[in-house]
Design goal:
By secondary structure, this protein is mainly α. It has one domain. It has helices at 5-32, 39-44, 48-59, 65-68, 75-102, 111-147, 152-176, 182-205, 210-216, 234-255, and strands spanning 107-108, 226-227. The radius of gyration is 18 Å and the shape is globular. Keywords: Hydrolase, Membrane, Metalloprotease, Protease, Transmembrane, Transmembrane helix.
């Protein structure tokens, strides 16, 4: 028997408030002590949502952590879903980067860069999956389980909105500390919304959070695929972000379930 929708919505609400308080408090500590956020923290901080989600499940006396996190699936389904997710994501980024370069922004990276990226994409994705597992178990796992009754576009939009908001304290702190350009921070934060929709689509399609875990771990974006001899300008950031949003939305539409199949 499915748990009451109201209980699931209550857990989602508690999680949303708690996870935003957690990331804001942690960033406030860095600002308070005038300590620059190290690169390793960004990787470790991805486990904050999973820890908060686990605490919420404990508080509501819910069992079946891996079921709520949508991590119970066959290895075949996880593998196929992950391959589809990674390929679709790379194609979306490649099309976005190619269209931008055709428009006269930036230039192709040296051929050796693309060859190295192809050879290292799998091992890098597997390594970074140890980090993204902490995020996706909560966003495309726990929250998906709580909000699935809203239908795909309902829960995917809600999760993506919250995911964007969750990144704001971290990105704002990095801008304040001078480690992230403001235009890069704003555009990368906004691009998280269509990326979140895409991750929800592939996760929903394969009935598991694992494809989202692996796809989220891909260490490339459209921006990385373009070379800027003098560095990207503020306009470049916005154009690339716009192209990425379009291709990610198209990928989401391709992978998202039809209304009758939800």
């Amino acid at each position: 028997m499915q748990p009451p929708k109201s209980a699931n919505y209550s857990m989602a609400a508690v999680f949303a408030v708690a996870v935003l308080i957690a990331i804001t408090a942690v960033c406030a500590v860095f600002l308070l002590f005038d300590a620059v956020i190290p690169n390793w923290f960004v990787i470790v901080a991805r486990w904050i949502p999973a820890l908060v989600a686990a605490a919420v499940l404990l508080a509501f006396r819910k069992r079946g952590l891996f079921t709520w996190f949508r991590l119970r699936t066959s290895w075949r389904t996880a593998l196929v879903g992950s391959l589809v997710a990674v390929c679709a994501l790379l194609i979306a980024y490649a099309i976005a980067a190619g269209s931008v370069m055709l428009g006269g922004i930036g230039e192709p990276q040296p051929s050796g860069f693309y060859l190295q990226a192809i050879l290292l994409i799998v091992p890098y994705a597997l390594i970074f999956s140890l980090s993204t597992l902490g995020e996706e178990a909560a966003w495309r796992g726990f929250l998906h389980s709580c909000l699935s009754s809203l239908g795909f576009w309902g829960f995917a939009s809600a999760i993506s909105c919250l995911w964007v908001i969750w990144h704001i304290p971290l990105h704002a702190t990095m801008v304040a500390q001078g480690t992230l350009p403001a235009d890069a921070a704003i555009t990368s934060t906004l691009t998280l919304f269509p990326l979140g929709l895409f991750l929800s689509a592939v996760s929903h399609r394969y009935g598991s959070a694992w494809p989202a875990v692996v796809a989220h771990a891909v260490p490339l974006t459209a921006l990385n695929l373009i070379a800027f001899p003098t560095g990207p300008s503020p306009v470049d950031y916005w154009v690339i972000a716009g192209a990425s949003c379009v291709t990610l939305l198209v990928a989401t539409l391709v992978l998202a379930p039809r209304a009758a199949a939800e």
